[in-house]
Amino acid sequence: MIVCPYCDSEVEIQNGRCPKCKEHLHEVKDEDFSEDRETEGMSVTELIEHRFKCAKCQSTSGRVKEVSMTGAGLSKLFDIEHNHYLFVSCQNCGFVEVYDPDVLYGKKAGSLGTVLDILFGG
Length: 122
Known about the structure:
Layout: E1 2-3, E2 10-11, H1 34-39, H2 44-51, E3 62-69, H3 74-77, E4 83-90, E5 96-99, H4 101-105, H5 111-120
């Protein structure tokens, strides 16, 4: 049983359609989840490289670099690099996309590096 996204009825798919509203429904198969299995266990940088498609030239060849930068104020004065970004460069045209790992990881990235910068002066 599934819930039809068109009529919100709980139905059994019959001939690829909802028996209530007759809308075509896609049957979910194991192949639909093959990429999830293929990318399982990959790091965020590996996932970006695996799924990369250049916005400018459509090439699928990209390289990821993690870059740390100081902020303004005291962090700049003491050379504390608490801003971390992932730069993805297209290997074909050189176009660069920037990602915030805090958003991708769902937490503050690079906190160990920041602590080491404070202790040892970056």
